[in-house]
UniProtKB/TrEMBL annotation:
GO molecular function, one term: zinc ion binding
Keywords: Metal-binding, Transferase, Ubl conjugation pathway, Zinc, Zinc-finger
Top-rank EC class of the record's enzyme: transferase
Domain RING-type: 59-95
One GO term describing the cellular component: cytoplasm
Pathway assignment: Protein modification; protein ubiquitination
All residue ranges annotated as the SIAH-type domain in the record: 112-172
Naturally occurring in which organism (per UniProt): Salvia splendens (Scarlet sage)
Biological process (GO), any one: ubiquitin-dependent protein catabolic process
UniProt family annotation: Belongs to the SINA (Seven in absentia) family.
Reaction catalysed by this enzyme: S-ubiquitinyl-[E2 ubiquitin-conjugating enzyme]-L-cysteine + [acceptor protein]-L-lysine = [E2 ubiquitin-conjugating enzyme]-L-cysteine + N(6)-ubiquitinyl-[acceptor protein]-L-lysine
Official protein name in the record: RING-type E3 ubiquitin transferase
Length: 321
């Protein structure tokens, strides 16, 4: 999947600004970035359970915590149910046949434990019964975020400051400060949808980061262009913000208003739900003017924070940065 590379950059920091930036599309390869790790923001005492008990509940094959059914061989060596099939029913420690022996004693020990969330070093101070811990960790607000860079299948995870640095340094994403923007997207051959399918710009405003996506893809049999915004944070925080996108020319205009989706929601899921400004190719070429052999779209927009009105109980927009 190819990227749309920025040719020149200009950031608009006010609603009535006239500056714009032109982004020219062509195929571009990105090297795989190195793995990032999040910096800890706090700690929780882990001395609730002796290390030896942790070791007993650790699968010797995958090193993950074991959950029922916990299997054991005739010699008492244990492993998790997932790895039992991987080792072809042979104990990885003594090579004895495993059979269907369960370690009920260890399962009972696990029931009595209370453990901190595995994201305690990132700020989560919650304590959970052993068997509830996994369910919480799947939705924990402190769990690392996936890299929001579309098209690269990037495996990097981390907290927001870590991912912002990763996007800037490894993916060479353009970073802008301000809540308004004015971009001009250019593509020399608009009929080659597959070769110009995405780009990303990051905005810093209201003390938060937002990802603006613009891409081309097939919707049924017809190629379309789509722009949408994602919030670098959780869904509950994303609902505090709204954004608008506008594209037009030759006396015609398309406007989209909505709430940015969290980067917890994958780029593909947002795109496939059509939650953004969608421009049919014929309309995009009409906006481009000329002989329709080159795509030239000017997309403007702004981001604002919704403020709760304590008297009326409704949200009012806050347009300040």
């Amino acid at each position: 999947m190819a990227a749309l590379e920025i040719d020149s950059v200009g950031c608009v920091s006010s609603i009535d600004g006239n500056e714009d930036e032109e982004i020219v599309s062509h195929t571009k390869q990105h090297a795989l970035p190195h793995q990032y790790s999040s910096k800890p923001h706090g700690t929780v005492a882990v001395g609730l359970v002796p290390t030896s008990v942790h070791e007993l509940l650790e699968c010797p094959v995958c090193t993950n915590s074991m959950y029922p059914p916990i299997h054991q061989c005739p010699n008492g060596h244990t492993l998790c149910s997932t790895c039992k099939s991987r080792v072809h029913n042979r104990c990885p420690t003594c090579r004895q046949e495993l059979g269907d022996i369960r370690c009920l004693a260890l399962e009972k020990v696990a029931e009595s434990l209370e453990l901190p969330c595995k994201f305690f070093s990132l700020g989560c101070a919650e304590i959970f019964p052993y068997y509830s811990k996994l369910k919480h960790e799947a939705v924990c607000n402190f769990r690392p975020h996936n890299c929001p860079y579309a098209g690269s299948e990037c495996s990097v995870t981390g907290d927001i400051p870590c991912l912002v640095a990763h996007l800037r340094d490894d993916h060479k994403v353009d970073m802008h400060t301000g809540s308004t923007f004015n971009h001009r997207y250019v593509k020399s051959n608009p009929r080659e949808v597959e070769n110009a399918t995405w780009m990303l710009t990051v905005f810093n405003c209201f003390g938060q980061y937002f990802c603006l996506h613009f891409e081309a893809f097939q919707l049924g049999m017809a190629p379309v262009y789509m722009a949408f915004l994602r919030f670098m944070g959780d869904e509950t925080e994303a609902r505090n913000y709204s954004y608008s996108l506008e594209v037009g020319a030759n006396g015609r205009k398309l406007i989209w208003e909505g709430t940015p989706r969290s980067i917890r929601c994958s780029h593909r899921k947002v795109r496939d739900s059509h939650d953004g400004l969608i421009i049919q190719r014929n309309m995009a070429l009409f906006f481009s003017g000329g002989d329709k052999k080159e795509l030239k779209l000017r997309v403007t927009g702004r981001i604002w924070k919704e403020q709760q009105n304590p008297d009326a109980g409704v949200c009012i927009p806050n347009l300040s940065i």
